[in-house]
Structures are given as structure tokens and as C-alpha cells.
């Protein structure tokens, strides 16, 4: 198992506390930074999750680590979905709430502050659980996966989007150059947070992706886990069935 990567390795605070504080710090600029630094590709990744949710006909959905609710909002494009979004960062949820009010979506999405590793829901409440770019930030991935499995109905689906490392050698060089040398100073300048965009490539490098993630999901209680690399493998979509 890889060592825990925290936003500020020299701080004694837990990863969870540091992650919460970091996202509170960057919340006001998060949406702009997200779309700008990913060159807008993130929209197409969320759309892929929506297409699967549509196909499996899930209606009651939990979006874990919802942040400013972009994926939850995408899921309202499916008729009759009801979404609960949870996140540990109050700052991110506050931005999300403003977006929901503007979009008239407060009757479709409810946002609440909660921890993915201790979800405040009954067993088997949801048809589907989604997480986009959240699992890498969990303090205890196995605990988070097990609790998401617990709140899913039998045969329900967990869909996870997470960054991964591209395998094509030429593309991989370009990617790491951008991730290590361009993104951290640019992110620091734009987000005004000293750690967020140094932590991002470090946490991606340490994340148990691909087959390793599938094994962890199976150990947490999922019966069938498949995955699909997207955009040269810089992101991976995992589909875990309970
Ligand atoms: C990179 S953001 C992703 C937000 C959103 N899902 C998106 O796609 O834009 C990661 C989010 O995970 C949240 N997070 C990290 N650890 C968490 C935990 N243990 N429980 C709930 N949320 C968590 C952070 O607060 C942050 O909002």
C-alpha cells in the first residue's frame, strides 16, 4: 500500500483536515481553475458518467465529494433523478448552493456536509453512487469504498472518475512536464494556495489506479469492477457493481 500523500507533508494535521482546509481555501476559484487547467476536457468525462447512469436507469443518486456540484448538476439532465451531494468542505458546498439556486435545481439536488468514510445514510438507500476526482483525496480509501458500497442497493453501481497516469511514452512525457512544471506554479498563482497544485500531481502519482483500484473495490464489497481509461489514460472511469 502506498504512503499517504498529504497537501502539506510537514504539517501534523491529518490528511482529512488538510484536504478540507485546502478545498475551503480554493473554493471560490475552483470552478474556473478546474475547467481552465483541464482545458475543459472534464465536461466530457462527467458526461460519460451521466450516460451510464441513464443506461442503468438509476434515479436516487448520491454524489460523494460533490465539491461545487458539477457532476450532480450534470445528472439532473436525466429525467426524474434526485441527487444528494456530500462533501467535507463547507466552502465548496457554499459555492455549489449558489449554483443550484441560480439554475433552479434546489428541488433536484440537496447538498450536505459529510465525510465519505462515515456516510450519514441508511444501508441500501441509493440506486447509484458517483465520485468525480474525490477518491484520491480520501484519507482511508478502503473505508470510503466500503461505506459507499453499504449505502448502495443490491446490484447498484458506484461510478468513479479519477485521474490516472497516461501509458503512451510520448504523451506521458508531455503530461508529466505539464503536471510537474507548468501546473504547480500556474495553479499557485491562480488559486493563491501554496499546496493545492503540488499535491495534485503527487496524489495522482501515488493513487492505486487500474487493476489495483479494482482489487481494492472488490475487497470493499463490490462483486464486479471494470474500468476504462479516457483521454490517453489521463483519467479513468471505474464501474463497480455491488
Ligand atoms: C477535486 S474536488 C472534486 C469535486 C467535484 N466532484 C468535481 O468533480 O469537481 C475533490 C473534493 O473531494 C472532497 N473530499 C475529500 N475528502 C473527502 C471526504 N473524506 N469526504 C467528503 N468529501 C471529501 C473535497 O472537499 C473536494 O471538494
Structural class: alpha/beta
- Average pLDDT across residues? 93
Largest sheet: 7 strands, mixed
What's the total helix number? 8
| Proportion of beta-strand residues | 15-25%
Give the N-terminus to C-terminus distance in angstroms. 24 Å
CATH-defined topology? Rossmann fold
Please identify, by name, the CATH architecture. 3-Layer(aba) Sandwich
- Distinct small-molecule ligands in the complex: S-adenosylmethionine
CATH class: Alpha Beta
The helix/strand order is: HHEHEHEEHEHHHEE
Q: What is the approximate shape? A: globular
Helix content: 40-55%
Give the CATH H-level superfamily.
Answer: Vaccinia Virus protein VP39
Concise synopsis of the structure shown:
The protein has 242 residues and is an alpha/beta fold. It has a single domain (15-241), classed as 3-Layer(aba) Sandwich (Rossmann fold).
